[in-house]
Amino acid sequence: MMVSRDEQARDIGLLFLRVSGGLFLLWVHGLPKLLDFTAQLQLIEDPFHLGAHLTLVLAIFAEVLCPILIVAGVLARLACLPILFVLLVALLVVHPQWSVAEGQFGWLLLILFTTVFIAGPGRLAVSVRLPGVLRYA
């Protein structure tokens, strides 16, 4: 099947968005939580009173495993949901006093991962080679 230049450019753009956004979230937020778990237990907010341990484990899931799936393009849309949830909780529940300028990093990540959620991973994704539901999630 012949792919047009516009389709190629769109797929390269989605690949760049997935990889850069996923690695950025992983590096800036996920790995510090994972690698310094004990210290992070003292710092993490617990807005739903689940306990610091469970809250941190859920944050690590959203900020380590989900970005890796998004970078690979496996279950990318589904993997965006926990990230979007964590971002919305951080911006609207944990830090409601932040101005747009103060929360701009979070808002930009929200825009980025919402775009991946809407557009999907594109054709340059591992999921393109996978059968069934994994391909579209």
From TrEMBL:
Localized where?
Cell membrane
Listed Pfam families: DoxX (PF07681)
GO cellular-component term (any): plasma membrane
Which regions span the lipid bilayer?
A: 12-30, 50-71, 78-98, 104-126
Known InterPro entries for this protein?
Answer: DoxX, DoxX-like_oxidoreductase
What keywords does the record list, in alphabetical order?
Answer: Cell membrane, Membrane, Transmembrane, Transmembrane helix
Q: How does it sit in the membrane?
A: Multi-pass membrane protein
Q: Name the protein family.
A: Belongs to the DoxX family.
* PANTHER family for this protein: INNER MEMBRANE PROTEIN YPHA-RELATED, OXIDOREDUCTASE CATD-RELATED
Report the protein name in the record.
DoxX family protein
Query: What is the originating organism of this protein?
Result: Pseudomonas khorasanensis
Print the organism lineage: Bacteria, Pseudomonadati, Pseudomonadota, Gammaproteobacteria, Pseudomonadales
